[in-house]
């Protein structure tokens, strides 16, 4: 019997604009890459990866499910975004190794493709209402058939009429530019209180958004049944949920679209289980992914093999990407070439992306990044949701 590979080295790299890469090397020379990060909290995730590496070094990388079980359940205290994100990046890298070792794309290892194209949407901001029309027009001209933007800026706990009108104006402007043949989604970003959401959702229905994302903060799950009943708009959430168990209550409440992040919610292994859970409730998968090329490549592998997939988020040109963009750490941009707003299936082995290792190492050596999300406040000085 041939000797199995062993994991021989695990390294992490901070890279602008706000990403982290993990490189998992085997004694057979096969290398896998992942993206473990919590945006704004990359350093604790890096430390968590180092702790998990103590277990993984010397192990057979092919035993992905067993490693996932140990990494998520092997400690008495479990869960949370930091640990889940560390596991997520390592899980991506293990799938990348397995695919490369077998000479197959990960989607073949997951059961084979069910589609040839993955529809994606482009980000158009929304915090600055005056720039919406031009931004949407530019993305439509680039071939995208769907866009997403913030539905509001900072919003009072009980919205003023002006704040309500500003949200509706955003939606109306986008619908006017796109017409009826293209789609747009609104992200409430947790900025909207449950009472404001109950007020806004019925008013937005006439603009027929594809979905409204994170209509309330994840800690307000109890508000979801009422919002689903009042909305007449598909509701989506999940970027701040990390396990399939956390998705159960929203799905039972009638949420139409789940948005787990492959770099937060336990990696490819858990993402596909969340998708399967959603399918039993008639819900769709639209993975959250405003991150880098490895995270997007991992999402695509799941999307190609998931029957209830809807649409993919991606970060090309997003406003966060000031010091680097989606393709800057990829040797070959071809796997991320958009054709009529969609990404085409490829049969490249593993995750299908070749990371520019030199660029990643150089970015980390230059200081990486210390990105932090903004802190917003109301006029009286109290904390406001960003």
UniProtKB/TrEMBL annotation:
Query: Which organism encodes this protein?
Result: Streptomyces albospinus
Task: Could you list this entry's UniProt keywords, alphabetically sorted.
Answer: Lyase
Q: What InterPro entries does the record tag this protein with? A: DgoD-like, Enolase-like_C_sf, Enolase-like_N, Enolase_C-like, Mandel_Rmase/mucon_lact_enz_CS, Mandelate_racemase_C, Mandelate_racemase_N_dom
Q: Which residues form the Mandelate racemase/muconate lactonizing enzyme C-terminal domain?
A: 129-234
Protein name (record):
Galactonate dehydratase
């Amino acid at each position: 019997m041939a000797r199995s590979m062993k994991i021989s080295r695990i390294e992490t790299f901070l890279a602008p604009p706000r990403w982290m890469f993990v490189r998992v090397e085997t004694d057979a020379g096969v290398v896998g890459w992942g993206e473990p990060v919590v945006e704004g909290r990359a350093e604790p995730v890096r430390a968590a990866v180092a702790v998990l590496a103590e277990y993984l070094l010397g192990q057979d990388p092919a035993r992905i499910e067993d490693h996932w079980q140990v990494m998520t359940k092997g400690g008495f205290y479990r869960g949370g975004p930091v640990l889940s994100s560390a596991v997520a990046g390592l899980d991506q890298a293990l799938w990348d190794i397995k695919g490369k070792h077998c000479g197959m794309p990960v989607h073949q290892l997951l059961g084979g493709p069910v589609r040839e194209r993955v529809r994606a949407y482009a980000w158009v901001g929304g915090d600055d209402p005056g720039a919406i029309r031009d931004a949407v027009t530019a993305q439509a001209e680039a071939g995208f058939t769907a866009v997403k933007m913030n539905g509001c800026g900072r919003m009072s706990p009980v919205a003023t009429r002006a704040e309500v009108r500003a949200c509706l104006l955003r939606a109306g402007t986008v619908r006017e530019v796109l017409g009826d043949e293209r789609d747009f989604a609104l992200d409430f970003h947790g900025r909207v209180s449950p009472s404001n959401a109950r007020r806004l959702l019925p008013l937005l229905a006439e603009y027929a958004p594809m979905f409204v994302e994170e209509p309330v903060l994840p800690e307000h799950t109890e508000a979801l049944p009422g919002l689903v009943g009042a909305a007449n708009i598909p509701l989506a959430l999940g970027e701040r949920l990390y396990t399939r168990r956390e998705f159960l209550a929203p799905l039972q409440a009638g949420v139409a679209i789940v948005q787990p992040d492959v770099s937060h919610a336990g990696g490819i292994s858990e993402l596909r289980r969340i998708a399967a859970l959603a399918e039993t409730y008639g819900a769709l998968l639209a993975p959250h992914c405003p991150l880098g090329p490895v995270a997007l490549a991992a999402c695509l592998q799941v999307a190609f093999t998931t029957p209830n997939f809807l649409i993919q988020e991606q970060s090309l040109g997003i406003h966060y990407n000031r010091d680097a963009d989606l393709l800057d750490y990829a040797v070959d941009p071809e796997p991320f070439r958009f054709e009529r707003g969609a990404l085409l299936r490829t049969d490249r082995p593993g995750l299908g992306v070749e990371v520019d290792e030199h660029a990643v190492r150089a970015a980390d050596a230059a200081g990486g990044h210390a990105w932090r999300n903004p802190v917003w406040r109301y006029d009286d000085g109290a904390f406001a949701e960003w």
